[in-house]
Automatic annotation (TrEMBL):
Signal peptide: none annotated. Residues 203-461 form the Peptidase S8/S53 domain. GO terms for biological process: proteolysis. The keyword Protease applies. InterPro entries: Peptidase_S8/S53_dom, Peptidase_S8/S53_dom_sf, Peptidase_S8_His-AS, Peptidase_S8_Ser-AS, Peptidase_S8_subtilisin-like, Peptidase_S8_subtilisin-rel. It comes from the Bacteria. The keyword Hydrolase applies. This is Subtilase family protein. SUPFAM superfamilies: Subtilisin-like. It comes from Pollutimonas bauzanensis. Belongs to the peptidase S8 family. Pfam families: Peptidase_S8.
Length: 466
């Protein structure tokens, strides 16, 4: 039974919560760039904020910089002192750059009973779940780099072929499966499966933050929306040079009548807050994500959508700092929703839910296909203390917006499932003005379609619009 300050984890009737019985197949080893950045996250006691900042300055011997100064213009980050601490005041976290001996002092403060510094963790790199793992997403290619373009096209085609083969098992694809496919003339299969197409709500008046690779700000489908945006990536503007962010923002908040059918967006009148926390190459770090969350909470966004994260190492639990940030966000009326991860290779191997979606107070989203079967890449809830899947959403062959000149694209991943849940959260928030924070989170989980799949894989079931 969940603790009072934790979100409930409903299970589908008859669901089997045990891990898969197939032989373990280790995940692909993480590259050297997937580990720690060398910087540190420090959780500050919000009731003793002034004391915490003073202690941080004295123990780390660094200059304190407010988040407003550090992120009002991401280019300023390159001008910050080599040793400094950027304090995200609203969520009570600092990103610290300091020498090794000072790092030891910080750890001693956190474990030694210092009441103003609650935790210290290495900052991790995060990816667009995980950029290369999102099925069908090619990395940005420099103009004229034909050899790289050819390689990426082959990689994309190979991965797509693997997905098609996985979906074809048990005879669910092929000619018969295609004949029974959903008619997407007017709206995508995901919009239909989640009942977004028949909802009378549009997300009007609800602030929805999408923290990703940015947005194609000149995309005609978003014209006249009055979008609020900010880049948290040094040297890069909000303009999306990757595509991942534009695709996710389109699913969450694309218009009901796009320039070219079918309809692909859930909450077409939500107030979009676009935070670029991942670079055009699809990568970023915890500090940028926390900066974006801090900004979203400051702007009273009711929902934060994050199709990003990093795979866990064996035995690695959830981040205490991200968990506390999520709790503080809920207390402020903000629900954080994140992608469960694309690291499984079902049925042989099921990977655990990624960071930071594995935090108990962050809503973790799995992906299902058009037959409402778990996507072969979707991570599973294998850890009881955090790490559960909470809800599922469409995540295979999902059409949405894409930067010009392509304008639209069809791709797959838990990255795509996440903004479905975020957009529908906006509909629920509009439908019930009293539903904010943890109340909204529970409302989302209570309004699902039960699936005949393990709760390990789909949590409460398929997300449904009000």
């Amino acid at each position: 039974m969940p603790k009072p300050d934790e979100k409930p984890r409903p299970s589908a009737p008859g669901a089997d919560s045990a891990a898969g019985s197939g032989g373990p197949v280790p995940p692909e080893p993480a590259g050297p760039d997937q580990g720690a950045t060398g910087r540190y996250l420090v959780l500050l006691c919000q009731d003793k904020a002034a004391e915490a900042v003073k202690t941080l300055s004295e123990m780390a011997g660094v200059e304190i910089v407010g988040a407003a100064a550090g992120s009002a213009d991401a280019a300023l980050r390159g001008k910050l002192p080599a040793e400094c601490a950027i304090v995200f005041e609203r969520i009570g976290v600092a990103l610290v750059r300091c020498s090794g001996d000072k790092q030891q002092l910080l750890h001693m403060a956190a474990v030694g009973g210092n009441e103003s510094i609650l935790a210290v963790e290495p900052e991790r790199r995060v990816y667009a779940i995980a950029g290369k793992r999102d099925v069908g997403i090619p990395a940005p290619v420099a103009p004229g780099d034909a050899s790289l373009a050819t390689y990426l096209a082959g990689y994309r085609d190979a991965v797509n072929d693997l997905v098609e083969r996985a979906l074809a098992r048990d005879g669910k694809a092929g000619a018969a499966g295609q004949a029974a496919a959903t008619d997407e003339t007017s709206s995508t299969w995901g919009i239909q499966a989640t009942r977004s197409a028949v909802s009378s709500y549009t997300g009007k008046g609800i602030r929805l933050a999408v923290l990703d690779t940015g947005l194609d700000l000149e995309h005609p489908d978003f014209a006249g929306r009055g979008i609020v945006s900010r880049s948290f990536v040094e040297g890069q503007a909000v303009q999306d040079g990757n595509g991942h962010g534009t695709h996710c923002a389109g699913i969450a908040g694309g218009p009901a009548a796009p320039g070219r059918p079918p309809r692909y967006g859930v909450a077409g009148e939500a107030e979009l807050y676009i935070g670029k926390v991942l670079g055009d190459e699809g990568g970023g770090a915890d500090g940028g994500v926390l900066d974006g969350i801090n900004w979203a909470v400051e702007n009273q966004c009711q929902i934060v959508s994050m199709s990003l994260g990093s795979a866990l190492q064996d035995g690695q639990g959830y981040s205490r700092i991200f968990e506390e940030v999520a709790r503080r966000a809920l207390a402020a009326g903000t629900v954080i929703i994140a992608a469960a991860g694309n690291d499984s290779r079902r049925p042989e191997f099921i990977a655990p839910v990624s960071h930071p979606a594995n935090c108990p107070s962050i809503l973790a989203v799995a992906a299902v296909d058009q037959d409402l079967q778990i996507a072969p890449f979707s991570s599973g809830g294998l850890v009881e203390d955090g790490g559960q899947v909470d809800v599922a959403a469409p995540g295979v062959a999902v059409t949405s917006s894409w930067p010009a000149p392509q304008m639209y694209n069809t791709i797959s991943g838990t990255s795509m499932a996440t903004p479905f849940v975020s957009g529908i959260a906006a509909l629920h928030a509009q439908a019930d003005p009293a539903a904010r924070g943890r109340v909204l989170l529970n409302l989302i989980l209570q309004n699902t379609r039960r699936l005949a799949l393990p709760s390990r894989d789909v949590g409460a079931g398929l997300i449904q619009a009000p």
